Amino acid sequence: MDKRDYYEVLGISRGASEQELKSAYRKMALKYHPDRNAGDKQAEERFKEAAEAYGVLSDPQKRTVYDQYGRQGLAGAAAPDFDPTVFSDFSDILGDLFGFGDLFSGGRRRARPRRGEDVRYDLGVSFGDAVRGLSAEIQIPRQEACYRCNGKGAEPADLITCPACRGRGERVFQQGFLSIRQTCSQCGGSGHSARKPCGQCRGNGYLRTEEKLKVGIPPGVDTGTHLRLTGKGQPGSHGGPPGDLYVVLSVEEHPFFERQENDLHCTIPISVAQAALGAEIEVPTLEGVEPLQIPEGTQNGAVFRLRSLGVPRLNSHGRGDLHVHVEVKIPTRLTREQRKLLEQLRDLLPAENQPQPKGLLEKVKDYFM
Question: In the chain, fewer beta carbons within 10 Å around the N or the C end?
Fold first, then answer.
């Protein structure tokens, strides 16, 4: 039976890019890999067919020859049959899945250095500290390599060759036509195991400790701000670097100010007389008390801005603004004299300042008609 066209095998067009080629092969390899299709000869053949197609099309020179002359053009220089050496490039596509990183390597595998895990620490700060900044001391739990066994998990004189992998650090499995190497699960790739676990760390190789750290909190932080301390996370394994520590901040709310990014908002009550006649009032700020001039005729809900009296901009220059909202307070209890004065004021106000319920009612009717 004639073999299928390589492009048809991978399900791509003849103009497919290198990335499309890799993506198509990866999809086929995952679908028909012997580990997922144990004993399925047809799947094994499809897997070989996909590998053969990729081996040709991933080589620019071979692909050019194949596009012009087909399989016959390849027969002279390189037989277009399944070639195990093509797996040297497959590790870039499939990573360590199914042990591809070690196929046909012929070398002894050791556990790769692994970066330590990152650690999160939640820290609550007051509103004032978030605005001004501070230096905080925190205490975090972490793991350190055992000082007695240097992280090996065994008493110094009782470290033996791993019986499972015989010191190779890997185990070899036969899957159809493939020889697959995988890291030994018993020794973790080190090639050694403990005949007698370390009495200090009980064979874990690590000890739980606590470390005190100083954290510099800059002015202007807010809830959700992350501060990163490089290398202060969990230690790495097999010589890998440690992870990082992320301090996540939670800022308390202020009883008077409401924060919106770098701006602050507050509400100040004023009397009817102050709103009508104008007045100078005092406004509390983060820096102390500031005077604010209320112009005559100020309406309820008016907003006044005091520049650069808000929150410092994080890791930058300048500050936000303070927005003062005024609330005109209407008296609920009046003395006889106060009522008389207000009635006199009502009679003296011009017509445009008097309420006109009839006119407003007519306007509402006109709007809905």
Answer: N
List 179's β-bridge partners, or say none: 174
Q: For residue 208, which of 235, 231, 242 has the smallest C-alpha distance?
A: 235
83-103 pLDDT tens trace: 444 444 444 455 444 444 444
- Range 3-6, long-range pairs (CB < 8 A, 24+ positions): 3/49, 3/71, 4/49, 6/52, 6/53, 6/56, 6/57, 6/66
Name the CATH superfamily housing domain 6-102.
DnaJ domain (1.10.287.110)
DSSP state of 59: S
pLDDT for the residue 79: 43
Domains of the chain, residue spans: 6-102, 258-358
Taking the C-alpha atoms of residue 122 and residue 226, their distance in angstroms, rounded to an integer, is 9
Partners of 125 in beta bridges? 251
- Specify the range with the lowest mean pLDDT, choosing from 16-25, 202-211, 293-302, 355-364: 355-364
Residues 6+ apart with CB under 8 A from 307: 321
- Between CA 117 and CA 139 the distance in angstroms is 18
Q: Are 248 and 122 in contact (CB under 8 A)?
A: yes
Whole-model pTM above 0.85? no
Whether residue 53 contacts residue 86, with contact meaning beta carbons closer than 8 Å, is answered with no
Domain 258-358 has CATH 3.60.15.10: no
